[in-house]
Amino acid sequence: MRALMVAALDGDAGAYRRLLSELTRYLRPWFARRLTPAQASHAEDLVQETLLAVHRRRMTYDRSRPFTAWLHAIAHHKFVDHVRHHAIRPIVHLDDDAPIFAADDSANAADRRDVETILADVPERTGALIRETRLEGASVAEAAARHGMSETAAKVAIHRGLKSLMARFAGGAK
Fold first, then answer.
1. pLDDT tens digits, one per residue of 72-117
2. Rounded distance, CA 158 to CA 83, Å?
3. What is the pTM assigned to this prediction?
4. If 167 and its partner were Cys, which of 72, 131, 141, 172 is the partner (CB 3.0–4.6 Å)?
5. Which residues, including other chains, have CB under 8 Å from residue 131's CB and lie 6 or more apart?
6. RNA polymerase sigma factor 70 region 4 type domain: from which residue to which, for each copy (predicted)?
7. DSSP category for residue 38
């Protein structure tokens, strides 16, 4: 498969078609072995998601490295995403157990003040994005929508803000 991948990267469309065909034949049983019998119908979806990921990330393949290791990394990540998405999660109604989960937040007041002081060192919107995604548990998409920006722009702002804060506290300049 490595030779087909290298030829495909060099522009050989026929080699790319053969590679995708071989990958399909290879990935079906690979996923089938990892799925429970109740989830066997998901194998084809995982194959297609993996093929799409291979297509999208094909330019990241390092020709000097084994192809199957690169492929298995992608397939493994798709499988883990699938397991996480389809995991059975128990539902606990918190109304019945509210006193058990009530916590005294007064000890955390100093921590919250410290966090707010630190976040004051980054632009206001960046601080709000970091607070919403890292502290309050909002997704990047939700935070981006609240601030009227694209998800990609929000990710970049969060990354740059955190990088700036890390540099500051690691002794570097902003």
1. 899 999 988 888 887 766 665 656 555 555 565 666 777 778 788 8
2. 28
3. 0.48
4. 172
5. 115, 119
6. 113-165
7. G
